[in-house]
Amino acid sequence: MFRNQYDTDVTTWSPTGRLFQVEYAMEAVKQGSAAIGLRSRSHVVLACVNKAQSELSSHQRKIFKVDDHIGVAIAGLTADGRVLSRYMRSESINHSFTYESPLPVGRLVVHLADKAQVCTQRSWKRPYGVGLLVGGLDESGAHLYYNCPSGNYFEYQAFAIGSRSQAAKTYLERKFESFQESSKEDLIKDAIMAIRETLQGETLKSSLCTVSVLGVDEPFHFLDQESIQKVIDTFEKVPEEEEDAGEGEAEPEAAPGAAGTGEQGGSGDQDVAPMEI
Amino acid sequence: MTTFTVPIDNGDSVRIAEEESQRTLYPYVTGTSIVAIKYKDGVLMASDMGGSYGSTLRYKNIERVKAIGKHSLLGASGEISDFQEILRYLDELTLNDNMWDDGNSLGPKEIHNYLTRVMYNRRNKFNPLWNTLVLGGVKNGKSYLGMVSMIGVSFEDDHVATGFGNHLARPILRDEWHADLSFEDGVKLLEKCMRVLLYRDRSAINKLQIAKITEEGVTVSQPYSLKTFWEFSSFHNPTAGAEGSW
């Protein structure tokens, strides 16, 4: 996108009916590291790539528990994401307190979307620069939603956001039809495989990703490193055509240092294709 | 005259008097007991149709049990106008719930907890809704029966009663209630309780309704009367054992 005379304020329309500031906010989501969500009839899996500012620092938290039955994965300005997660937790707990009953996730995402919309219609505000993948339960089962800085929200069977998410989406598009009836284990495996797609060449290790699960009769929780590594081991043993030669053998821990070129993951995402989300 | 000193700006005594008169101090038109039980298919709730004005049995056509949404029944004893206010709050609540139109709906547990919050908060402001509420319902096959008092005391049980019902009906229910009562047995049990209340509660009238809620929905019976028996021999000469009394 190029600069133009209609992109200074969020309250200025362009002659073609666009709000550029909102679209720029959606660009910020694409710069964040990848986050992926998938759901079956009874479970939702959220997974993300762990990105650290530098080798010295720890990685940023991108998946948050909102309640026992709702979790959210974010991509974009993590500060905005943290604030919105706090809002979601607050809404959820207030509902629980008044009604002693879990807030249906469909209603939470509408509240969230309405909050985002306000920021697209006030001259003294700016849109939130974060995309949220909200997974949760309500009376009709498990749901996955994507909340956009524009104030729109969509329901998905599976979705990926952030940098190099198109690779993950391609993988998910091939397999999504089976997700509704998938078992929890298969869903987790598909999530980690989708994460692998976004790494594009880097060896997949459990330290590089965070995975969380929630389901009917199963409160939101994170998978520990061992469980993730176990799942990785089941498919890293089978060399596939897309994998680089020499990678992905039967070693339980991936060999350090030999991860090949393109070791940095985080900075310089100029190779992100300007795709539509 | 009992007054609470509400700590507000002391300079304005007129305002203090106005604030006092805005709070509920005592009830005026009241309903008497509600008795409710869980049975095989859901919940049964019985109440009479009387509204007393002090010791006068003034109103004889008051429905004290109402359907709330698709899944619940609310019965109230105590101040009738406060009950109507509560019905308005619940109306708003169920309307907003319906407007979501998203396949989720408020069940009896949610409504019970909402009412508990309302009653407790009013009590904390020294302005209670002068009712004891009974909330029964069925959702997704599960029956629910609970009670909230005017000070916000709230609990669930297999059978509940308010007011005099607590003292006269609950003992009968404790002895004779069991799980999976049939509809006929449930009604018989409730009628037994209501008959005792009719004999012994001065504010009860002989015109009652029994409401039923199941997975299918709510049915409130037409008003009817219980058969009573007054020909006990001791009633013929009531002062036989204590000459000189009346």
Automatic annotation (TrEMBL), chain B:
<keyword id="KW-0647">Proteasome</keyword>
<dbReference type="InterPro" id="IPR023333">
    <property type="entry name" value="Proteasome_suB-type"/>
</dbReference>
<dbReference type="GO" id="GO:0051603">
    <property type="term" value="P:proteolysis involved in protein catabolic process"/>
</dbReference>
<dbReference type="GO" id="GO:0005839">
    <property type="term" value="C:proteasome core complex"/>
</dbReference>
<dbReference type="GO" id="GO:0005737">
    <property type="term" value="C:cytoplasm"/>
</dbReference>
<comment type="function">
    <text>Non-catalytic component of the proteasome.</text>
</comment>
<dbReference type="InterPro" id="IPR016050">
    <property type="entry name" value="Proteasome_bsu_CS"/>
</dbReference>
<comment type="subunit">
    <text>Component of the 20S core complex of the 26S proteasome. The 26S proteasome is composed of a core protease (CP), known as the 20S proteasome, capped at one or both ends by the 19S regulatory particle (RP/PA700). The 20S proteasome core is composed of 28 subunits that are arranged in four stacked rings, resulting in a barrel-shaped structure. The two end rings are each formed by seven alpha subunits, and the two central rings are each formed by seven beta subunits. The catalytic chamber with the active sites is on the inside of the barrel.</text>
</comment>
<dbReference type="Pfam" id="PF00227">
    <property type="entry name" value="Proteasome"/>
</dbReference>
<dbReference type="GO" id="GO:0005634">
    <property type="term" value="C:nucleus"/>
</dbReference>
<keyword id="KW-0539">Nucleus</keyword>
<keyword id="KW-0963">Cytoplasm</keyword>
<protein>
    <recommendedName>
        <fullName>Proteasome subunit beta</fullName>
    </recommendedName>
</protein>
<dbReference type="InterPro" id="IPR001353">
    <property type="entry name" value="Proteasome_sua/b"/>
</dbReference>
<dbReference type="InterPro" id="IPR050115">
    <property type="entry name" value="Proteasome_alpha"/>
</dbReference>
<dbReference type="InterPro" id="IPR016295">
    <property type="entry name" value="Proteasome_beta4"/>
</dbReference>
<comment type="similarity">
    <text>Belongs to the peptidase T1B family.</text>
</comment>
